[in-house]
Amino acid sequence: MEHLDSYLTIAAAFFIVTVSPGPANLALATVAMQSGRLAGLSFGLGLSAGLAFWGVIAATGLGVVVQGTTTLLTLLKLCGGAYLIWLAVQSGRSAARKMQQTATAAHKGGWFWRGMLLNLSNPKAVVAWMAALSMGLGQETNAHAVAAATLICAALGFANYAGYALTFSLPGFMAGYRRSRRWIEGVAAGLFALAGFSLIRSALTR
Fold this sequence. Notes:
11 helices; 85% helix; globular; mainly alpha
C-alpha cells in the first residue's frame, strides 16, 4: 500500500489523457461504427499494443532519450504526420464512395496492425506516459513500483479502447453512422489532416 497514492495520481492523470478525444479514439470510433464490434476490438487491441510499447519506453528511461534526440523525434513526428494524412485520405475516399462500395472496402481486415501502427507512429504518446509517471513517482522509486504503474496505465488504455469499441459498435451508433456516413467520414478526414499537418509542422519547426 506504500505507493497507493502515487498509483492513484498516475492513473487519474493517464486516464484523463487517454479518454480525451484524439486521432486514436476518433479512428477507433469510426472503425467500430463502420465495421462493427469485432473490427473495433481488434483495432483497439492494436492501439493498446502500440500504447504499451511507448509505456515500456517511458518506464525504462528511453523516453528521455527519444525526447532528447532531435533527429529521432523529428523522424517519428514526420512518420506520424504522414500516417495521419494517409488516414485523412482514406476517410475522404470513404466519404466520396457509395455505401455498397464502402461496405466492401471496410472488410479488408488487418485492424490490429493498423491500430498498432497508429499509436506507434504517435510520439506524443511517450510524452503522455512520461508526464503521468513523473506525477506520481520520484527518483527514489524502485523498479517494481515503476512496472506496476506502467501495467496500471496499460490496463487503463486497453479499457478505454475496449469501451470505445463496444460503445460505438452498438446498433444505434452504427445506424447513425449509416445515415450520416459521408458527414462523419468528411469530418474525420478533416481532423486527421489537421492533426497530421500539425505534427509535420511541429517536426519541421523544432
